[in-house]
Amino acid sequence: MSKKSDPRRLPENAAGATLKATKTSPQKARLVLDLIRGMSVESALNELQFSTKKVAQPIKTLLESAIANAENNHDLNVDNLYVDTAVADKAYVMKRWRARARGRAAKILKPFTRINLVVAERAQETATKAAPKAAKAEK
Questions:
Q1: Can you name the residues that pair with 16 across neighbouring β-strands?
Q2: In tens digits, what is the pLDDT along the chain, a chain of 139 residues?
């Protein structure tokens, strides 16, 4: 007897990927994720490619992984994908200390971030709405 498989957490038209420990603060990661949320994956990859933020490269790798999951595991059309959900949460914080004057110590916090990215396939409604207009233009 094998264990029953867990039900799928995402809708049928979506796929995701998770980056569990990124060496950056969640606030800095959210700045980059806010840029790409809602974009098509092609324009999001372009945006991340030319971003000057350090965290943009791990997010780009994560987005490429989510696209590969959508294509290979869930048979979604890559041309219709967009960034549906992009969330950066606090993972853990390494605490270190630094010696200061008069025998005191100062706290150094090194935060890590967990990033969840979900890409979804756009509905075909936009394509079907454009087709009748094109047919009317031909007449």
A1: 118
A2: 688 888 888 899 999 999 999 999 999 999 999 999 999 999 999 999 999 999 999 999 999 999 999 999 999 999 999 999 999 999 999 999 999 999 999 999 999 999 999 999 998 765 555 555 555 555 5
- The pTM assigned to this predicted structure is 0.82
Q: Which residue has the tokens 């075909």?
A: 124
Q: Which fold has domain 16-99+107-138?
A: Ribosomal Protein L22; Chain A (3.90.470)
Please report, for the chain, the start and end positions of each structural domain, with discontinuous segments joined by +. Answer: 16-99+107-138
Q: 3-state class of 4 per DSSP?
A: coil
HSE value, Cβ hemisphere, 13 Å, CA-based, for 104: 5
CA distance linking residue 19 with residue 62, whole number of Å:
7
